[in-house]
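Notes on consecutive records. When two proteins share a document, each keeps its own sequence and its own token line. Never mix them. Below: protein one.
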Amino acid sequence: MNNPLGGKLINRIATPRQRACLLKLALPELHISEERFIEVRNIAHGVYSPLTGFLGKKEVNSILSSWHLTNGIFWPIPIILDISFAERKKIKDARRVFLVAGNGKKIAVMDVKEIYLFKKTSFCKQIFKTTDMKHPGVKKIFSRKEYLIAGNIILLHDDRGEFAHYNLSPKKVREIFVKKNWKKIVGFHTRNVPHRGHEHVQREGLKVTDGVFVNPLVGYKKSGDFRNEVVLKAYTYLSRHILPRGKSLLGILEHNPYYAGPREALLTAMLRKNFGCTHFIIGRDHTGVGNYYAPRDYEKALAKYNAKMGIIILHFKEALFCHDCKGMTLENLCLHGENQRVRPSGTKVRAALIAKRHPPEEMMRPEIVNLLLREKSLFV
């Protein structure tokens, strides 16, 4: 099992005594969105180890320019909390604030270290390599507030969210790995329902590991994405009935996607390292969107940073079905012509499901299609 980033799993969850004392304080309140609440929980549970809070200007600039924290630890995307001009005035010189959820509950205390201007254009140029507002990540950044606030947090209420049964902390996942006696674990990230290509690369990962940590993303989705409930239901079936028995663990990742291509692909690898994974699968267009990132972009990022990440990246060529090979294979291993190949296509699968039709069996297992077609609503 892998060590977490920085060598120690961060725990920023208040004890009952700490919580009681902190809730008695008279502090200014900052109301935060569900997206930011997810990030507070991830900091507190060590998903974002070694981070202990939202990042300040020096750390953000270091990540933007070098993909590293100032202490040299690899970290490719800053975790930031934005506030408005009015909220900045409200806080004034307060050294501590409550972070408050939409329901009015005080969910965390933040030690205010710094407030600084959010330079959105330079942020987007570095993270997304574009400032095109058609890019969903860019659009989200420009919709955020004018300032960033930095400081350590401590979680007051450990609400595990809508899918609590599957929302396993890194500590809990590591305990399960030990119980299963898994030494080598491959992590698998997705925000879509599983087609045959996804299944095949997981099986490929199992050839060199003891188990696969199937870790679908649950969080903010852009319009047209599969609903969280649908993704989880499909992967529950895959894990229980299709993957080799006893070789998979299903747990969700609460994470708000940036659609940042190579940078985010490597961030998702780092998060799985914190869960204990020794290997991680990066797909052909991992965490990408549209035509903003090409396969070569991922190859360049891996070539530059792989040695510094401390996790083995499995960057497979495209998985496809070949009639002559009589099953699923990888593009670089198949010697047959294109007329014998069926390439799993998320676009074609989506179109078929919208039309209430079955995609070809070579693209998606009929059992999973039947499960999906029973859903009243598949998409956000």
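Protein two starts on the next line and is unrelated to protein one.
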Amino acid sequence: MTESKPDTARALVLEEFNKPFVLREFPLPEPRDGEVLARVVAAGICGSDLHMQRGHDPRTPLPIIPGHEGVGEIVAIDDGATLHDGSPLEVGMPVVWERSLTCGKCYFCLRNERYLCVERKIYGINMSSADPPHLFGNYATHILLNKGTSIYKRDTSIDPAILVSATCSGTTAVHAHEYAEIKGGETVLVYGSGPVAAFQIALALDSGAKWVVVITRAPGRKADIALEFGADEVIFKSDMDSCKLMNYILYQTDKIGVDVVIDTTPDPNIFNEAVQVLRRGGTYVNPGLAVPADPIPVELYSAVVNKDLTIRGVWAGDASHLGKSIELVQSGNYPFDKLVTHRFKLEEHEEAWRVLTSKEGVKLVFEP
């Protein structure tokens, strides 16, 4: 333990759905059984956290310390705790940690599909703060990382607030990118213009996509950032209905349609439009839906079967996806700093939630 380690941690706790968080103090635990105690220096505020706060995520227990995107530094370690590659951890080391913990022995873990683990625990999403040691979410000054959590050393030249997107948006985007199978020369259509979309643009361009187009609601900061990331064009839904959009895409692709659609939005109604603009044999990938949504009618034969489409849902990601996401952000090849538009202290959580619900920002970050 370090001499400067305080006795308590402060954390935001969701005690009732649709109510503001409550700032609480908890005793700072001693790590044991391979655990790691980390100080949180930046915690991302994710759009899915809003669904949790409203009680829309069936996984959420109460009370809970939210926040599944964390960046920080090591405060204390127990014997046996290491970095993801087995190298030693040190007190004071700057790190990034995976948002989830898997059992390693279920059917899915043994198939290297850990994101589907039946026992998957996610910091800040399904780990309650009711019982000691309490600190299992990133909306806090400290977090206790269980044995087996994948931990990566981070580059201190990168602002920690910039790296938080790598832990969720970037990890999910890397997983989606694997399914998109962009190998060079493809036309790619990205629905949405938030952090996941920014990662998809970067990943597609790095893989040699020849035309990357973003569809978003209206002009604004997110659309500008998409262009700065290298999107060839941004199309606004406010300017085109589905019919005009399809005609435009077909015109731009010699009446063939795009090779890949990546839907980063939470709107299931996008699906029927998206499959219309796909070419025969194209691929639709959805990393956008994070909570249950209303069902939609689909004419399966003409929309999917007759076009021989590949349809892939994307559920979270694992440590391998996180590692690639961190590398992409730390490469400096794309302006990930532009994503961070607002920074808040824990005490400013009500203002942070106002900005989140009003969609005034892109990436919001707590700096505890």
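For the record: The mean pLDDT is 96.
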